[in-house]
Specification:
Layout: E1 7-8, E2 11-12, E3 18-20, E4 27-29, H1 43-54, H2 60-71, H3 77-90, H4 94-101
Antiparallel strand pairs: 1-2, 3-4
Helix pairs in contact: 1-2, 2-3
Length: about 110
């Protein structure tokens, strides 16, 4: 069964691949990688908004107007705060990053 490609704010998405389990005869799909649940905006818009805020370039109100200018839809300040809270909770801490990188400190 062929599935048509769903649309997103940035254009059409690739159709989902369906798989069938031979042992239990059920079918399933892998979910799309989303930056957050119940997405109403494309992931690249959200990630760009979070990146601009983290760089310290703007406030929630200015960032909301920047996103509205880019996407053509209004976004509330509370929504931007929810994006930051959700993605910030998934970010690695400096300790986790240092353990992953295993830096070798050296002196002169």
């Amino acid at each position: 069964m062929t599935q048509s490609a769903p649309t997103a704010l940035s254009g059409s998405l690739k159709p989902l691949q369906r798989f069938a389990c031979k042992s239990c005869k059920s079918s399933f799909t892998y979910g799309r990688n989303k930056a957050r649940t119940r997405a109403k905006f494309a992931d690249d818009v959200v990630l760009e908004a979070v990146r601009v805020y983290i760089q310290g370039l703007t406030s929630y109100r200015v960032l909301a107007s920047l996103v509205e200018a880019r996407v053509g839809r209004s976004v509330g300040r509370v929504t931007i705060n929810n994006w930051l809270h959700d993605l910030g909770g998934r970010a690695k801490t400096p300790l986790e990053t240092s353990i992953e990188l295993q830096p070798r400190w050296g002196g002169f």
